[in-house]
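--- STAGE predict ---
source: upstream dedup step, 1 unique chain passed
mode: sequence only
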Amino acid sequence: MLDVRRLRLLRDLARLGTIAAVAQAHTYTPSAVSQQLSALEREAGVALLERTGRRVGFTAAGRVLVAHAETVLAALEETTAALAAIATGPTGPLRIGAFPTAVRTLLPATLVALGDRYPGLELTVTELDPVAVPAALHERRLDVGLLHDYDVAPVEPDPALDAVPLLDETVFLAVADAPGTDPSGVGGVPVAGEDPLDGVRDLPWIVASPGTLCHTVTLHVCRAAGFAPRVRHQADDFATVLALVAAGQGVSLVPQLAAVDPPAGVRLLPLRTRRRTRVAYRRGAAAHPAVAAFVTAIRAATGDVLAR
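--- STAGE serialize ---
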C-alpha cells in the first residue's frame, strides 16, 4: 500500500523541481524528504527517481506514479468533501487567499455573509499575490484562493487545481483629469484617435514591480500599441497608483475592481484588455460545503460591488 503523504511529496517534487524546495514547502529537512521518497520506492517495488550527483530526475515509473498521484489526491479531496457534506452545515476552518484589491472590495461583504449564515465556520484571510496562491493550495496552507490573469497574458491552468470564473473586468488607462503641479504636463492628457494609448505614448508611466503579472501586462499592452513605456514610478498597490496619477505623476493601467472609487482628478479610459479572476481550490474539493458556501458568497458580493 502506497503512503499518501509520500505520494504528495513525490507530486511536489515534480512541481517544485528539487528536494530542497520540497523540504522547505513542508518544513522538513532535505534528508527527511529523501528518506520518505526512498520509503515510497520500497512500497512501489520499483525505482522512481534517478540521481545524478545532486540532481534528481524521474524514471518512467516515477512519471507514471506522479500522474496517478494527482488522481489519488483529487479522490481524497472528493472523499473529504463527501464526508463534510453529511454534517449539518459548513463548519471548521476555511483559509482564504486573495489579492489586495479583492481583500478590500469583495471579501468584507463575503466574510460578513458567511459569518452570519454559518457561524461554525472559522474564517481566515491571507493577502497574497495570485502567483503565490497555487503553491499555498498545494501545500494546504489555503483552502480557497483567488487567481487572475489577463487575456493578453493568459496563465496555464494547474492540473492539480480546479477553478470557477468569478469576474471578467475591463482594464482602464488612468490619466490625470486636470493639469497638476508636475512640470511634465501629464495632467489633461489629450487622447488621440480611437485608441486611448495613442495619446500617452510619450508620457511617463506608473507600473508595477518587475516580475509581477501587472508589470508584464503593461509592457505587453504598450508594445502592442507600438511603444515602450517610459517608467517613472513603480507601485504595486492600485490606491497608490491612482493617487500618483491624480497628482500628475504619470499614467497607468488599472483593472475595474481597483477603480471602483477613484480619487478626484483621475479619468478612466476603457481599453480592450480584460482581467479574469477565478476562485481556485484543490481538485476534488468543489463539493466541500465550506468551499461551495464561499463560492456562493463571493459571487453575490462581487455582483453587489459591480452593481454599485
